[in-house]
């Protein structure tokens, strides 16, 4: 996931050998010995997520799954986007990269300094230090909930933090309400919407999205809003 929807030019991490891609880790069919292919793109992303999540757990790293796969884990449906996102603290980046590289993944550093990228089972994986320009903190990771992600338990960003991060990513250049609306609908009873409002600050895009949720009766009107007063 890039913060404004832009693709970054990747560069291998300096001083790291060009290790084989994670295709070598692909499951083999028990009878034919041939690589097993996922049923579809969503399943491919889930398989990659489980593999990377298991590696991070085995390495003893503090992390949390984010993005559309986190929404799926919380019950928001299986409409996954083009990659899987993991959150880590900035100071843990080198240790996390070393763990993934030891497992045979090639870790790349894009020009942006807020994430690393890798590929697993042919799927893009983003290792993120900031969510929409907000630093990933220990408190955020401590609030993560360990739940199953298609059979593998791992820390998943709490629903409130997840929605707050999605709203914080809105900008004049990247403002896809349609992608976030189904997630908000599905998770509305799990989210502290007052905290989302607080975290959104004076963001006009976030305020517009929250107003849309009110008009669609997804969430209760904010006390004192014009929509509330008209009722």
Portion in strands: 5-15%
Contiguous uncertain segments of 5+ residues:
1-25
The helix/strand order is HEHEHEEEEHEEHHHHH
How would a crystallographer describe the biggest sheet?
4 strands, mixed
Total of DSSP H or I helical runs spanning 4+ residues: 9
Here the CATH topology of the largest domain equals Beta Polymerase, domain 2
Radius of gyration: 19 Å
Indicate the mean pLDDT: 84
Could you give the order of strands across the largest sheet?
1-2-4-3
The percentage helix is 25-40%
**What is the SS-derived class?**
alpha+beta
Shape: globular
> In angstroms, what separates the terminal alpha carbons?
39 Å
Number of strands: 8
CATH classification class of the largest domain: Alpha Beta
CATH architecture of the largest domain: 2-Layer Sandwich
Tell me the domain tally: 2
Provide a descriptive summary of the structure in words.
It is built from nine helices and eight strands. It is an alpha+beta fold and 231 residues long. The chain folds into two domains: 1-157, Beta Polymerase, domain 2; 158-231, no CATH class. The strands form three sheets. The protein has a four-stranded mixed sheet with strand order 1-2-4-3. A two-stranded antiparallel ribbon has the order 5-6. Strands 7-8 form a two-stranded antiparallel ribbon. β5 and β6 form a beta hairpin. The chain is globular.
């Amino acid at each position: 996931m890039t913060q404004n929807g832009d693709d970054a030019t990747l560069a291998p991490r300096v001083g790291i050998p060009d290790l084989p891609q994670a295709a070598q880790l692909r499951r083999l069919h028990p009878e034919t010995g041939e690589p097993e292919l996922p049923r579809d793109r969503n399943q491919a992303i889930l398989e990659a997520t489980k593999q990377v999540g298991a590696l991070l757990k085995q390495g003893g790293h503090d992390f949390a799954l984010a993005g559309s796969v986190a929404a799926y884990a919380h019950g928001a449906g299986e409409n996954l986007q083009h990659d899987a996102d993991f959150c880590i603290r900035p100071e843990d980046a080198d240790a996390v990269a070393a763990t993934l590289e030891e497992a045979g993944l090639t870790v790349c550093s894009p020009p942006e300094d807020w994430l690393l990228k890798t590929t697993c089972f042919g799927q893009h994986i983003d290792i993120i230090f900031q969510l929409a320009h907000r630093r990933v903190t220990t408190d955020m990771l401590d609030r993560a909930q360990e739940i199953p992600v298609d059979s593998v338990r791992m820390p998943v960003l709490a629903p409130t933090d997840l929605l707050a991060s999605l709203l914080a990513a809105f900008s004049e250049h990247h403002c896809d309400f349609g992608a976030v609306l189904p997630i908000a609908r599905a998770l509305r009873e799990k989210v502290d919407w007052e905290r989302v409002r607080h975290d959104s600050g004076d963001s006009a895009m976030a305020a517009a999205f929250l107003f849309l949720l009110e008009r669609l009766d997804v969430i209760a009107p904010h006390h004192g809003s014009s929509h509330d007063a008209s009722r």
